[in-house]
Specification:
alpha/beta; two-stranded antiparallel sheet; 8 strands; about 40% helix; globular; disordered C terminus
Length: about 270
């Protein structure tokens, strides 16, 4: 299909694709998938867009819960972004996680869908306490690239650009991109599928910032652990997820600027 001539775009994934960090549950979430859809709609205002992502989902859950509905929508373009929730877990299985991603790549491309995914930045450069995860991220990126190559999937290499680890690209929890980060990811996806007018400006560094002292940095790490890492670990120990009782925010194909108008479209299940 010629670049930019997409009619149906479906996004599969977890909280990043849902848009956490770009808006909130009160005013609404935007996120890189919404922003990417806007890039596409600028070329074809008739574009229809669905977002099946749900926060907290692992790659296996994305495959089990979202792949079937995605295929039923017959997209000609899909984004598949998952795996971070897997590698954060103690019992992480790299081959299994990559296998779920590859199954989605295969099923979608076999159905004639153009698929695009991305690689992940070094978490240790965003949250120093996440240094033990550095090798996991690098290995998962290698597996993503290999699986993508086997199925003709485009890859936005957000994991290889220094700009994507700038703290200003991330929210206070350091797990979700900020509005600026989501904007850059959307631009990276646009370049990966060669949309007219796209370029590599998303790789450019931000203006210089004041670097905190070692003492300030240590204090920031402690505050981050107390405010974000602790609660996250608590949910894991209780077997809970931030996505419990949530559904896709945009399960139907709609014009990009249309507002979902049913309980099922809001991302939260209706009360019993």
């Amino acid at each position: 299909m010629p670049s930019g001539a997409y009619l149906r775009y479906v996004a599969l994934g977890d909280s990043q694709t849902e848009g956490l960090g770009d808006g909130d549950d009160t005013v609404g979430l935007r996120g890189f998938a919404d922003r990417f859809a806007e890039h596409l709609a600028a070329l074809d205002p008739g574009l229809q867009y669905a977002n099946l992502a749900v926060r907290g989902r692992t790659a296996g859950q994305v495959r089990t819960e979202q792949l079937g509905p995605a295929l039923a929508l017959r997209p000609d373009l899909a984004t598949v972004v998952a795996g971070v929730n897997d590698l954060l877990r103690p019992r992480y299985d790299a081959a299994e996680t990559a296998g779920h991603l590859e199954e989605m790549f295969a099923a979608l491309t076999d159905a004639g869908t153009h698929v695009v995914t991305l690689t992940f930045p070094d978490l240790a450069k965003i949250a120093p306490l996440a240094r033990p995860l550095r090798s996991r991220v690098a290995d998962l990126n290698t597996r993503i690239r290999a699986a993508a190559a086997r199925h003709g999937v485009a890859v936005a290499e957000t994991g290889r650009q220094a700009a994507t680890t700038d703290p200003r690209m991330w929210t206070a929890d350091r797990l979700h991109a900020s509005a600026l980060g989501h904007e850059r990811i959307a631009a990276a996806l646009a370049q990966a599928v060669h949309l007219p007018g796209s370029d590599d400006a998303w790789t450019l560094p931000l203006p210089p910032r004041t670097v905190p002292s070692r003492r300030q940095a240590a204090g920031a790490e402690l505050r981050w652990a107390a405010a974000h890492l602790g609660p996250w670990l608590g949910r894991r120990l209780r077997g809970r997820s931030s996505g419990d009782a949530r559904t896709a925010k945009r399960p139907r194909l709609l014009p990009v600027h249309a507002t979902p108008d049913s309980a099922a479209d809001t991302g939260r299940r209706p009360s019993p």
